[in-house]
Amino acid sequence: MTKQVAKVCMVPDLYARQDSNSFFLSGSDLAWNLLGSHNEGLLAASEVAKQLSYLRMKTNKKLFVDAQSGFGNPLNTYFTVKELEHYGADVVLVNDQRYPSNTKTPKESQFYSFAGRVKAAVDANSEADCEIWVKLDCFDSYGNDGLQKRLSTAAKLGATGALLNGVPNEVVKKLDLNLKLGLVNPQSLDCPSNVEYLFG
To answer: Which of 142, 168, 172, 187 pairs as cysteine with 192 (C-beta 3.0–4.6 A)?
Structure first.
């Protein structure tokens, strides 16, 4: 059964969406609320962590948190994951974009840069209740083969899930991986059976 994950940003959002079992703190939405721009690349990791701490104090439900492109290189990613874990993230999402991230106009990171950040995130992950997922925003740049390569690599490096953004349903249906799958802003209500979470 597919679970709905509600996007939240401020504490009142938790009460407005209290029927949801899981929440997603999106970098793009947080940038809009704090800065009036959907460009999450304008945020610092500490701003995301601070907002996460407010949400964590008000709910014990599952919280997915956007760690974007790790706020820089693998070392930055390592310390970002440590900080987000400390403030109560249940799932930390590391994307496949160049730093700084921008979900509206994503720019694909080099493959080895992406892999390095995923490895750093997994190495930083020390809380038993926290998972590392990848968020794949650049499907239009690398297509089906690139998607499969990134998912396989993420699984080998120790990530446990993937959030797919802008991937057509017919492609999602054909994926055969040992990762939990989520879709952000799905293209239709005909959700593929291998998708465990819908974000939106």
So the answer is: 172
